[in-house]
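Schema walkthrough. Field components (list of strings):
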Amino acid sequence: MARFIIRSIISTIITMLLVSISLFLLIEVGSGDITVKILGVFSTPEQRASYAAQLGLDAPAWQRYIDWLIGNDWRAKNKVGYPLVTSINPQTGEADWWADVDGQLTRWTLEEGRLLTLKRQDDGSTTSHISSGAWQIDEEGREYFWGVDVKNNAVMWVRGAGAEVWALTKAGLRKEGDGPMKYIPLRKGLLRGDPGISLQYGRPVAVTLVSRIRNTLVLAGAAFVIIMPLALFFGILAGINEGKPLDRIISITSLGFTATPEFVTGIFLILIFGVWLKVLPAVAIFTSADAIFEDPKLIALPVLTLTAVELGYIARMTRASMVEVMDSAYIRTAIIKGMPISRVVFKHAIRNALMAPITIIMLHVNWLVGGLVVVEVIFGYPGLGYYIYKSAIFGDFNAVEAAAMVTVAIAIITRLFGDLAYTLLNPRIRYS
Amino acid sequence: MAVKTITQPTSRPSRLQKIWKSMSIIFESRVATVGMSMVLFWVILAFISLFWTPHDPNASDFIQNQGPSIQNWLGTDHLGRDLLSRLMQGTQVILLKTRLPGDAGISIPGGVAIWGVIGSLTLGSVLGLNAGYRGGWWDQIIMQVLDALIAFPRIVLYLVVIAALGQGDLVVILAITITGAPGVARLARSLAMDIKTRDYIRAAETRGENVWYIMFREILPNARGPLLVDGMLRVGYAIFAIGTLGFLGIGLPPPDPDWGNMVNEARRNIFSNQLAVMWPALAIASLVIGLNLFADGLREEMTRYQK
Amino acid sequence: MKKPKITKFDMEKTHPAIPNAYEQLEQGRISRREFLRFSTLLGMSAGAAQFLAACGAPPAAEEAAPVVEEAAPMGGIKRGGTWTSSMQLQLLDHPARLSWVEGANVVRQICEYLTITGPDNITRPYLLEKWEANVDVTEWDLYLNKGIKFNNGDELTADDVLFTFGEWLNPDVGSSMLGLMAYLSGMQDVEKVDDYHIKLHLQFGDIAVPEHLFHYPAVVLHREFEGDIIKKPVGTGAFTLEEYAEGERAVFKARTDYWQMGEDGDPLPYLDELIYVSTDKDAGVAALQSGQVDALYDPRPTDFNALKGVDGLTITPASTAQCLLGRVRVDLEPWDDVRVRNALKMCQDRAKILQLAYFGEGDLSLDAHVAPVHPSYCEKDIPAYDPEGAKALLEEYAAEKGIELPLKVSLATKNDQAEPEIAQALKELAAPGGFDIELDITEPSGYWDRWTEVDLGITSWTHRPLATMVLPLAYTEESIGAWNETRWFDTEFEEVLREAQGTLDVEARRGLMCKIEDIMQERGPIFNSFWKSVWNITNSKFQNIKAHPTAYDLLYDVWKDE
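Field assembly_structure (string):
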């Protein structure tokens, strides 16, 4: 038993690593040059190179993968020469990077050839001083300086050789002088809870992601609680009545609901309950971050939509499994022996019949995530699926990678639980 | 024994006989018959649409957002196009033709859903047979990769693949192939593990046959039935997926109508014209149900045969 | 009818050009609307101008559409309540850099403009007390209201205005105000006379200065603004920003010390709270019908169609100079050839495109970026659908180039308002003209990423009150690299445009506009079938809602009647 669990966990970790590598490759390599997407196809190669450097894309792929996974502040620390720390910006609630110079949080900026030291005060404001003597000399005799800039990059400035930097604004590209020569966009990495900055919104992905995951878990959890008992009930009911009219009605209804795409069910639920009858909120309007807790009715229609689609599927699985069990020799023997049907069903059949659906449901979680994306898009529900959809359309790879890894983790962990549940329910595996 | 007929082609029943025999299985099951007629309905409609539709599917000849009438049996869409004609032509891209990229506008026979499923069946069988028959490290590695693939939520994979490669028939086929292959592989693996214990495989091994020969000439033909049934269900999933991708605005590209982009276009007018989204959705649902019933019926009959 | 009590002398004191315009009004050569706009721009108060217009216009020249009066006293005003709207929220930092009206709607609640152009197209003072212009409109005196406080307690003075002008004119900021205010060569042209008086010295005359000051990026910033309005939301507006989360929501609370007073003698605003929720339009329409939100930002025609019969919603339409503009890159083949451009223009069956894309709700257009709602629009015949003519032109071109028809082109646009419908319709309509149009329709953000770069595309352009505001932005040599998406420029065109910008006389201006429209129709880079109608769709509980042609949300004096 313990060996089995350990083996499952090891396999899970390997799977996660494999997925993260392939996801990273697929998005970073497959999506081509993101700077062309952001800057437009007619941007000059210099503009693209400059922008790519600011995003840290000039580093080799393996390096970026490692940065993405475990961060790069430990790498940048050696360059800057001071410990790098984050502090929460009180205005935005987001983390800013600073160098910890003997207890004083410090950044630098280059203005008109002069290096300015920005020191963070306790009240969150900064004071700036002209720093002198900070420059170091490299082998070629150039004066250079590694520091942390105001945009959360570790950067290398070279005196008198400020690169021209093309910064993107909504009105087009504009050129900024005094640009650094090298950039390391500081991040803690996915494993340490920092998946980077969203290219679409310019905010840390993690800030948005946390509330999105919570919203999705609430939605999926509510749907799960409703679907499971109903599906098992109808499935078992149909299974023990195999071939009878009740079975046919249940089977055909569930097939019908399963075969109707989520978007159709969702749209018609909106029309009927939200627009015509006005008894439930039509869509998920979040007037505050905690709107689902203040007004739980908000998730009624999304949950109903998920239920309609998923209920039928799981009921069908349960039915099939029940039919198989009812057909097995030991059940027949029990019935022939004269045991009351109800006792046969409750004592012997259900327990065995549940094994298959449970594993299937656990394997089915990623299908459920697919349904979630569509449902969240229909209802404008600010969850993980909607976030993935918006980010993938934009090509916001930091956001897509992080959000997709979360869904993968959910899928794999539930499957691990599925395996464990199966083991517990199945004596043959339990004792082997 | 059935085995002999496969290893000795001379004693095979004639092709016609074989087809008739498998057809008769279908008609023995009422479920399968109903399912098949639903599927055939759309296939026939697709062929008809190659030569004739009531109106030009792309021409805005009528009043916008009208309900059914004598002229437009299913009504018109937001651009005043005939919904029946568009629904009919929409079957083509799904079932009958795949448009190749490039300016030439060349199409190959076989719809996007069909090719996608052929792709996943091929890829999945190769992986599954290798894992199941060879076992050991092959099995470990292939299953690990498949686990990773399965863990990928399909829709994320679709979104990522399409975001990376752009919209197009081939991209959708690729997406369906990749998402479908792990399921096929698992099935093929379990079948292979079951079949490889049989005597005729032992015999082939003793004869010193090549591993690939055993997998594809000995095991695969005997695993054909369940794989085909599974494939049929997958055509249903694929059509469902095409609809969903269309709804999300990343499905098959215009201008030819397909059910997915009909849904996408009709969605904006949903509050003034519910029918425009109903028809393609009903079409998707009926085809999926048809394929499901067909597959269910076949499976039932096949298990009965085995008994 | 009473004789005007405002004498010619009074008029001349405000601006010497006004008596002349009044004469033209009396003779029926310009409309009441035109006179109103003209005289108010030159500094006459809206009340006086309306009085004059009412008296001066001969009955025959009276227009069917009544001029919107200043809001009459309403009574029964109630305070309190929340206003919720559905609108996409994007990344937002520097207001001067805004290129999205959505972002401007957020900023507009916190910060304010020097002037305000109403739905009646008349510009009135806002933060300003008044303005004055000299005879040739090259010198403008702007007088600030006194006693206006920022939400951090500081008083608004000329320093803040000067700082804001500095941001606009700084090329590094990347503001579209820079192109608009080409008449200012730099901060040396902006003079601080005293704490409440700023003088602009224009390089060449432009009558539209007050209207430019209401261009959507033109909010007045605090003198210590650091480049990100979300991090430091300081402004003079009626609301303060409580929360801004891109892609989620924006929440505002009412200020208690706002400078404008309500009908009841207490400071505005009447509403307690504003919430923008970032949703897709489809979800927004459903939310509006079910009462979850009170308004929908910039409804699409399909939304209007869906919502027009719904109880409890008030729909106010407005004609606009907003359009979904077809445009080509004249620096790329085949659009560098004027025959190809004109052939495509001839392939528009404008009435049909309007019907298909906008359910007929809009005004038909010429292929010039000048709309009927623009003052001094020069009326011309709407070109007819002429596929044969187009084909003839294309055949000539094809023969010269040695290529075969149909000419394959790819039309890029976004799946947003009605662009896909226009694109679909155009594809069908242009087929007999010899074009084979391939459609490349992406999500809006996908198109905005490359809108200046595609060779054939449909871009949405927002309403600007004057043609002379939009033309320099997109059709001059200077604007290449900024908003000139077609790379088209024309020496004669630019000369006429400059002249029009500095011409006061409405009739003379119309003559120049005729020339501008001709040039654009003859060799310009754009094709446009119609000008959109827009609708303000708001829950009927809300009073004093103004339907602005640019979907601006002006909410400081809106109140809610439960």
